[in-house]
Amino acid sequence: MTTSxxxxxxxxxxxxxxxxxxxxxxxxxxxxxxRPRSGGSRLRALDGLRLVAAxxxxxxxxxxRDGEVTRAWGGSPRLQFPTLHSYFAYGCLGVQVFFxxxxxxxxxxxxxxTLRSFFASRVSRLMPAYWAAIILVTAVFALPVVAYQAVSPxxxxxxxxxxxxxxGVDRVLGVCWTLWAEIRFYALxxxxxxxxxxxxxxxxxxxxxxxLAAAIAQGAHQPLLEIVLMPEYAPFFIGGIGxxxxxxxRRDAYxxxxxxxxxxxxxxxxVQRLWHGPHxxxxxxxxxxxxxxxVTLGFLAVAAIALGRLDWANxxxxxxxxxxxxxxxxxHEHLGWVVIHALHRGLGIxxxxxxxxxxxxxxxxxxxxxxxxxxxxxxxxxxxxxRPRPV
Length: 391
Known about the structure:
The protein is mainly alpha-helical. The chain has 15 helices and no strands.
């Protein structure tokens, strides 16, 4: 099974979010030290923002595009949501918001870590829910009553490696293409920052070199360089890293420069890839202004968190929201089609009711995956990968 329009699907990754960075690698001259954070051990507003981005993506997949979801609705979502479909079409930009968050969180959580610890953290966070989602979606799509076709057993097994996209294998989860982007970001960050040891100068140099190299790769039209450097997505990861530097020192002019350049380049790629004319097929019309606005709001939201402006959003339920985001993201699209078909065409529930009930059902499934898969397997995998081995 393949999904349509890879460039505008989406992806959050569930990461631990420490509330307070370690002592900054301060530049020469007077600086403002990192402000003490109040209220809690997590940046809970970041958890909430992740869930908002995931719900944006769900709105896009359920009501903001055509494609295989039309078989679930029995017609185009444009007819199901005559007023909201044009707004739902912007939900695909949740992926850009996720990438900005990922840049922020990976820089924060990777600072001061060893390469082994960083690798163990990433694998233990990503893989348990991902494996469960692959097995669950494959099993459901194999049922005779489900109208969607499962991938071949061989392709399903390859999907367990998370390398199906570069290997040209059909994907079980349409959204997994963003995990491939995240993995490449992790690899670059691990080799350039975690392995030699994180400090401010090294992170700034990494951001500057990646930005320049990505632009060169785009201009050179070299597929290998584009695969490694990801020109289209690099500005969002780099912008998130810059915002983490701002979180450490709000007067860091270099950090603000990284954020500004990343926003300028990022909005360009978003408009270039996601803008379509008013008569484009699949009602995917989005105005350039609307795209730039959503990208800008994503940067501003993470910036507000970095500056502590949302420290007041310290409710415990936001931590739960953050924990549900990744499994929800993995299962919501394809299993959502099955639920929509059952509720709307099977039970005759109106479109808006079906939409809300489907989102609720996917959140419940995400809670079950978090409770019975992630909470049990994540610490065990992390412990096993962190255990010292004899040389």
